[in-house]
Prior knowledge:
This protein is of the alpha+beta class. The chain has five helices and 13 strands. It starts with 17 loop residues before the first strand and ends in a 7-residue tail after the last helix.
Amino acid sequence: MTPSRLAIIPAGPAPREGHYVGADDVEFMIDQATGQPRLRFADSEEIFYLTSEPALAGGRVLKFDTGETAIAVSPWGGVTLYSRHRPAGMPAERSDDLRTFEPRAVPAKDIKLFAAKLSQRLADRQNLAVGFATDWDGLARDKKVRALAADSMRNATYALELLAASRAMRSVLASRLHAVRVTASTTKTATLQNEVLVVTYVTQGGPAARPSSLAIAEAIEARLTASAGNAPGNTDR
């Protein structure tokens, strides 16, 4: 007998560019201008660069740099948003065309002020005393590197705010983290070293070559969890 053939179902389309609205007035934007799907929430300046892959039944899935699903697109174009706060997904409707997507660039003369405002934000909103360190002179000379570094600082701030939503985690961060160092490297990473969060970006890697706030938060959580597991009195019996 001739074996039956499975029907080949084409992957669903990428989500349309535009402004979207979901439950509880959650608003976000989807953009494809760089050739890579990008996501930005209306109340944030962070841009998430997403990877795209086919899904079952002819849909499409867009993922954060952590590997977690950000957006699912049905075969007929329906959009569902996923996040840490909405792990089951939230249907969203396209409400308008894009008008603005890119956050305002940070001029060379303002890069230190930009970092100082992020530090003040963490102090005011989360009671965290965190300063930023980087090659300020190098950032002042190079617009592309400055953009990567500014994104890294901003994303680190959002990551700390995300984690500090937990009172217990806020207490740990207040005692364990006092500085964020942003620097160029061969890979985009986030690591917690002693009392310093080190966030690296890839100078020649393009605007996506820095970790997202989600990736930074994940790295911090993993390090703190490992530290707690190795603390005296926490050994397995």
